[in-house]
Specification:
Oligomer: heterodimer
Low-confidence stretches of chain A: none
Order of helices and strands of chain A: HEEE
Largest sheet of chain B: 2 strands, parallel
Shape of chain B: globular
Largest sheet of chain A: 2 strands, antiparallel
Mean pLDDT of chain B: 77
Number of helices of chain A: 1
Structural class of chain A: mainly beta
Radius of gyration of chain A: 11 Å
Strand content of chain B: 5-15%
Number of strands of chain A: 3
Shape of chain A: globular
Low-confidence stretches of chain B: 151-158
Helix content of chain A: under 10%
Radius of gyration of chain B: 17 Å
């Protein structure tokens, strides 16, 4: 099983309030189903 | 996947949606589909690129499978479904005309299951527009990942 690279984990994402987060925060406390959507259409 | 939120939570996991449009469209998107899970935006698409998700005109619109999927849906559905397919196609085409509005129209998505230690228990990278994984496949992988973590749903609830 491969793993998310440290670099990928550090990429920035923003919540809808505009607060910045690192991607790795999403799986820090529990397994996560990460759904990347094409766009908000 | 959003219809599986309860099951995902029961397995001790979370569903997180990442889109590449702006906050404004993210809010509208969440309201439209009554999304009740964490939603993030990445207008830079850096996270998409870091995870090697595909991007390009050809895979987005150029594949005959993209058009075949649409025409099959149009042929097979009842009238209301046909209208829904056409509307969906139109809404997905608008970002092509207005770059950056609802997101990067050429960026494809994907689904990953990531464990707390960073291991990837499942990944599906869309190869063409409309290429989504089967929900049952994702849920099976999630259930399997719990096994790999060494705890069960019942233990998680204690």
């Amino acid at each position: 099983m491969d793993a998310v690279s440290a670099e990928a984990g550090r990429t920035k994402i923003w919540d809808i309030e505009g607060r910045e987060h690192e991607l790795k925060e999403t799986w820090a406390v529990q397994p996560v189903v990460l759904a990347f959507v094409r766009h908000f259409g | 996947m959003r219809h599986e939120v309860s099951r995902i939570h029961a397995l001790g996991a979370e569903l997180v949606v990442v889109g590449n449009g702006t906050n404004r469209f993210a809010r509208a998107f969440a309201d439209d589909i009554q999304l009740d899970t964490p939603l993030y935006v990445d207008p830079t698409c850096a996270s998409y690129q870091a995870l090697s998700l595909k991007r390009g005109i050809a895979p987005t619109l150029g594949s005959w499978r993209t058009w075949a999927n649409m025409f099959r849906a149009l042929r097979g559905g009842v009238r209301e479904r046909r209208v829904a397919v056409i509307l969906r196609w139109w809404r997905q085409s608008v970002p092509v005309l207005i770059p950056g509005a609802q997101g990067d129209a050429w960026q494809l998505g994907g689904v990953l299951i990531v464990l707390p230690d960073g291991r990837i228990a499942y990944r599906h990278h869309s190869t063409i527009s409309g290429d989504h994984p089967r929900t049952s496949e994702v849920m099976a992988a999630l259930a399997g990942s719990k096994w790999q973590l060494g705890f069960t749903s019942a233990e998680q609830q204690e």
